[in-house]
Amino acid sequence: MLVCFAFAFLLNIEAVRYYSHVSILINVPLRGRRAEHVIKVMNKGSYFWSGGLHAFYLSLPFFLVFRGVSDPAGGETAWSSTNLGDIASMNALRVAVDFIGAIGEL
What InterPro entries does the record point to (predicted)? Predict the structure, then answer.
């Protein structure tokens, strides 16, 4: 999970670097530079930004697996277990039982 966050951070930093480079290139007169170069650099920045977002979105399921469903939802922390042997199985079981009970009440 930490690797996903670090990778997303690094990709977003690269995107900011490319976007700031594009802002400088746009304001400089086009003596020897062609517009295709500016477009190429802008596309690289957008690819890094997209990759950073995808890495961040990938970390959300890891967070739910390792920390459990009830922790981010503000549930009871007594049920939460940070033991890697459990991998939030108690939280997932409790949420599944509550969901089945809610469906049965309909």
Answer: DUF599
pTM above 0.70, yes or no: no
State how far the Cα of 104 lies from the Cα of 24, in Å rounded to an integer: 61
Residue 20 structure tokens: 């700031």
Q: How far apart are CA 99 and CA 32, in angstroms?
A: 64
Residues 79 and 70: beta-carbon distance below 8 Å: yes
**35 pLDDT more than 70:** yes
d(CA 75, CA 71): 6
| C-alpha to C-alpha distance for 43 and 29, rounded to whole angstroms | 20
Domain parsing of the chain, residue ranges: 1-67, 69-106
Token pair belonging to 106: 């309909």
By the 10 Å C-beta count (0-12 exposed, 13-18 middle, 19+ buried), 78 is classed as exposed
H helices of the chain, in order, are 2-27, 35-67, 89-105
